[in-house]
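pasting for ref. prot 1 ->
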Amino acid sequence: MADNQQAAAGNENQPQFALQRIYVKDLSFESPNSPDVFQEQWKPQVSLDLNTSHSKLSDNQFEVVLSLTVTAKVGEKVAYIVEIQQGGVFMVQGIEGPQLGQMLGAYCPNILFPYAREAIDGVVNKGSFPALMLAPVNFDAIYAQALKRQQDEAKGEAAEEGSAH
């Protein structure tokens, strides 16, 4: 019996991660130049803006939100704009510091992206446009770049404070 209690206590200290919920927090689609844009030859320039954010819901629960904006233009005309905020609630326990940042800033958005991509593709099709399958995104590289930028900015601020004395 004591061995089972020790095993249970040992598991509490083990890192734990679980996806609890995935949902669309916000979704919008605009096609400001319809139906005129359907007369154009379909060779769109597609741009993608993305952002991630997270917030702590409780001691071990976090909401992560992946925000994507897709803009498709044909020439100078906007064919469509899709904006989505794909959310997820994740249980993260026994993971702290840089590992927690990596988990919330890269790993969780990686889980959310296919859901956002599917929602975007569906709404684009409902707008009578050809399917748009967004290419995979390397969230680890994006997170690493953001971390380096923050470190560089912190070094710059520290240097400015040092020279101000």
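and prot 2 ->
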Amino acid sequence: MVPIKSLFIQLWEFPLPRLKELNPHSQERGSVVVLVTLALTALLGFCAIVTDVGLMYAQKAHLQNSVDAAALAGVQELPSNPTLATQSASAYAAQNGVTAVTVSFEENNAKIIVQATQQVPTYFARIWGITEEQISVSAKAMMIPPTELSGAVPLSVLDEKKLVYGEPYVLKEGGGCGNTGWYGALALSGNGASSYEEDLANGYQGTLSVGQIVEVKNGNMSGPTAQGIAARLAQDTRVPRNTFDDHDRNAPEIMYIPIVTPNGQKEMKIVGFAAFFLDGVQGNGNNSIITGRFLQKLASNGRNNASLNDLLQTEHDIENGGASTDFGLYTPKLVQN
């Protein structure tokens, strides 16, 4: 029998097991720590990339919006004044914090191209030595014939007439002319004489569209014609008064008129829109007629809501000699970059 004291001494002197013998999974745990550390490093790297890419995306969106606005501003001076178009585009870009843009023109100054390049600083990507990235954007705009228009007067011009800049045209016939009692007027707000007079004075408050069918307004209506035109001319408070050669962009003498083609005996189909500078009413009574000179200008209250395919076709037609709906009245439109 082993004495208790001897047994105690043997137990006390027994060697302790090594760590790997006591916990065989300790090395695996160490490996997991290394893998987690590497994964966290990679995750932080991806977060850095996403953050910098997001910042660059936001900056590029702002830059794109700025050159879009610049192109739409500049195109309104085309095709007659590319120098002023460049100045206007640059000024609009500067208002949005873009101080350096490149402006060029295509298609005989019918199209404006605005380009901008900017260096964007990075933040997290600096750990890889990338301190900045360059972003570049561009915008193109053209003057496209409007497909919708508000503010038109209740007159019309037949599509068969050839429009020449500066030439006078009869916009409402007098007695003895016209076609079976129709003298060129349209029923836009209604068939009454008062609505016709109001539309002459202030323009039709609704929206007209290419392809829309409108009713003709029979009768000479010399009294409402004279009164409506007089009320329109009375709105000119400019000193000196607006003239064909020197007028404000929104002068009351400028009238938007539908270009139409017959659609039966009592209806007309709108195929486009044109602008005329109002000369006034000539003649008296049943012989009174409205005359105006043809303008090529921007329609401040026009829109082009054509589909992408139709817009591309219109752009192609303008670039190659003119579109079938091009009657000298335009609205600014961004086109494909």
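Residues 105 and 112 are 5 Å apart (CA to CA).
The radius of gyration is 37 Å.
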